[in-house]
Input
Amino acid sequence: MSSTGMLTSNSLAVKLWGTEDWVNPGQRVAFGHMFSRGSVFYAEELEGQRARGDQITYDYTGKLTGIPIGEGGTLDGNEEALDLGYFTMAINITRIGVLNPNDDTIEQQRTMVAFPERTRKIIPQRHMELIDASVFNQLAGFNPTSYTQNGTTWSGTNKLFVQGHNTPVAPSTNRIIRANAAATDQALTSSDKMTLDIIDYALEKIDTSDQPIKRLADDTFDLYISPEQYVDLKQDTTGKIQWFNIELAKITGGKSNELETNMFDTMPKAGIYSNVNIYVAPRVAYGQRSDTSAVITTVRRAVLVGKDALTYASPFGRPDEKSPLKYFSQLKDYDYFKGLEGRLIYGLKKTVASNSEDIGVMVISTYAAAHS
Output
């Protein structure tokens, strides 16, 4: 027996562009917020149907560091060579599909759940979960042997779906700081929690670096911490400067405070300290053992980001202008079943050149166990 096929490659297959379903969940995760803040560099070279290729390479020139020649000296033979490096990022495909009974079926008749409507909402939410995880895994240089997040265990090549289709690169030498100067993530103990003190130390490390991180347009940095680190920060009683005392002073001074509200521009916000906006994000990466690459679920790698900390590319366009998610539908079994695919072609990677420190991120690693 033969049946007529309707594959997604068939010109008669229905193809849609989604907008609303993408935008709504995109406003509630860190990726959209980072994009609007300038922490994500968009690679225009890979946008559009005429753009071809699955990888892009940028050059990066380091600053000059030699000693100049003064009066009476000879420059000939004492010139410097350009410090040329590069940054390479790949793009690939993420496909998510759901198959449902169609409208005129007994299964749809039996329930008030509208299968097509529910599917159109749940597919982009799943895509945004994966991109959000990719954002923090890339920024933190988190690449364990396997780990579980949001109910799914990722290992082997499947990890690329939560890594932006690029293998994360470990933090460069001067772009990671740990509470109480711990040498490794596995050395962090329950005494090494998130405090405002460690933010000061991170800023000091940035300012004294030969390659400082560029601040965002409003001359601030953004720090993303996990919910566990947020609780630790609010309840800290050991730091030289304490979050609670700062917020209490705001109340007594008649100013707005984060004791009562913690939302800013769709992102939960713990406050601002020393020109650092502190946001709360549930998918901030876990810690990672330096010897076995195993995940440490009692440690979180918060990330302090500036301009162009990440690079993003998609032939489907900028996520702040139109949906970078493309839908395809397919009918099966005499139209009894209808499948819907949400297809995304993109790449996401921490911006780091072969001859430089990480361009726009400082990792802050602390003990961060759940409190419940």
Observations:
- Residues 48 and 257 are 45 Å apart (CA to CA).
- The chain has seven helices and 18 strands.
